[in-house]
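Q: Got a minute? One more chain.
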Amino acid sequence: MYMENTRPRTDRHSGSSRKCLMEKHRQHLAFAALKISAGDRVGAENDYQHAEHFYRSAAEVKEPETS
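A: Always. Here it is, folded:
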């Protein structure tokens, strides 16, 4: 099956800075904590998975070197 609108994984967050991605990571961890306290284990797991995605995406970002 051919998909026209797909991009390689490395280009997915090319416009996002590592700082922005790590902020999204922290937000999803906070959402997960709130859902755990409310007894929503499934919703919390969803947020943990999103947090992991943003963490891995931030690790792939190559920041421009400053000299």
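A: The CA atoms of residues 10 and 60 lie 7 Å apart.
Q: Perfect, thanks.
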